[in-house]
Amino acid sequence: MTLLSLLPLFAVAQNAVQDSEQLYNIGNYRNKSLQSPKYEYRAVWLTTIENLDWPHTQVKTPADVERQKTELVVILDSLQAMHINTVLLQTRVRGDVIYPSSIEPFSHVLTGVSGKSPGYDPLAFAIEECHKRGMQLHAWLVTLPLGKVEHVRRLGRNSLPSKKNSLCTRYKGSWYMEPGNPATAHYITELVKEIVNNYDVDGIHLDYVRYPDSVDGYPDGSLFVRHGKKMSLAAWRRSNITRIASSVYSAVKELKPWVRVSCAPLGKYNNLTRYSSLGWDAYNTVYQDAQGWLRDGVMDVLFPMLYFNGNNFYPFVLDWCENRYGRHIAPGIGIYRLLPEHGGWNPIEIKRQMHTSRSANANGIMMFRTAHLVGNVGGARDIYTSIYDRPAFVPPMDWIADAPQKPQVTLCQRDEEGVSLEWNAVEPADGFPVVRYNVYAAIGDTIDISNLNNLVAAEQTVTSFRWNCRSNNSMTMAVTAVDACGVESEPAYIYPSIAGSMERGSLIGLPEPHSWGQRIVVKDLFDRQVYYGKYCRRFDVSGFAAGRYILTVHNRHGALLHRVEFVR
């Protein structure tokens, strides 16, 4: 996988700063956006079923391919402008998919005809376009529902009930994959492995990994007798759903540990001490032990569908945040509720839910659905942008791997036009993609890398950076390494000062000391250390042999403060 670059999301921060006042403002951006955390999911569900969010053009002619692609590009441009950093694209719809699969047929949403190729790979295209814009793409799989009887009939011999009837159950006019059959977990896992092996996805998202919303009369009695052992029916059903989640998680982490595995459970996990779930919760109603998945480490992220208001939202979002077991929780916000036909909520309710989620230290939010946000339905976009008005990184999965080593800065040259930096490449963990690098800058002798107003380059792959900032002020810079899980290293601090890059003579003038305990190191062009000693303002080089040398000044922690080349 090529770890996505966040450069487009941080385009404002990366514009070359042209004077001292602008440089000062980078580190002192004074408005409400300073409340925005550095890490936060800004996520949307992008729905393909019934062509709800995309595509609206179905491919009938070659020209329709470009129209379909353009529709997606327009959507992604709008999401990028709103600082969305995570897109969940509905990839498996109802027993059919939107990519060329050896397991399931193409969905009719692309062409109007089940099983027909649109003439390109929509999933590969969507991944490429998301990554261009600094956004992650997670493949969203509708896990167990296979659609109404009419839909399955339309798929004909390509439908799962036709090909693998033992994995399927017909119930109340619809077909489902049967969670009570242990082979179902294997089938779903093979689908996931196909995607993870063949695509540069950033995540796998399991939706509808649960029993039907009402299980009165659900026909799994014979399977329960055969496989239930000594469990209760409810415990057996929960174990069936957990088996699927665990199988998928293990397979993904074996292939690509940095790919995130998530789920959208019902918005209420269980009854609370003071608040009832009113008979509609994940644990008892549809048999999702979602908090148990976090506790047992078989899920990275949960996006609970909290499409409720009042006391059906606020106590339950707190419950999720208090029981995340070190993993990520980003509540699903039902912005569709602003529509008259879905409740006609007052927009202030959505705003309160967003503020409450952040106040509860949730790891971000997920919005259902994309068309309502992009189209500003009910003022959804206005509400969102009033709160999430600055970029954010996707939260790191620090339980997967240790932070990478910090970079070692090898060059720091400052002139009247700006600063040039170079550093040694940091090796990734075994089997992981390349490490990327963030660069920060601020006026003064300290820098806060948790404040993204100080970010001047985001997750770049090269090990050098030129920043054109004309300023005579003292400044602090820092370089960090970021791994594929988003985990950032300790910063390597640099204190650039204006000085000529080449000096001749017996005395080298050095800038005012930055701090006590500074040291001078001199190396020859073969990187052999020929001098190490205390700092002084005027350094005598008359005793050195003829040749070219590099003098560096370091603080007591070893951080590079100044660099100059000289010739004897």
What does this structure look like?
The chain folds into three domains: 46-144 and 182-387, Glycosidases (TIM Barrel), CATH 3.20.20.80; 145-178, no CATH class; 502-567, Sandwich (Immunoglobulin-like). Helix 7 (182-198) packs parallel to helix 9 (233-255) and helix 13 (347-359) packs parallel to helix 15. The radius of gyration is 28 Å and the shape is elongated. The chain is α/β, with parallel strands linked by helices and 568 residues long. The longest helix is centred in the middle third of the chain and has 23 residues, at 233-255. It contains 15 helices and 27 strands. Helices cover 26% and strands 23% of the residues. The chain has a ten-stranded parallel sheet. Strands 21-27-26-23-24 form a five-stranded mixed sheet, with no helix packed on it. Strands 17-16-19-20 form a four-stranded antiparallel sheet. The model is unreliable at 1-7 and 11-34 (pLDDT under 50).
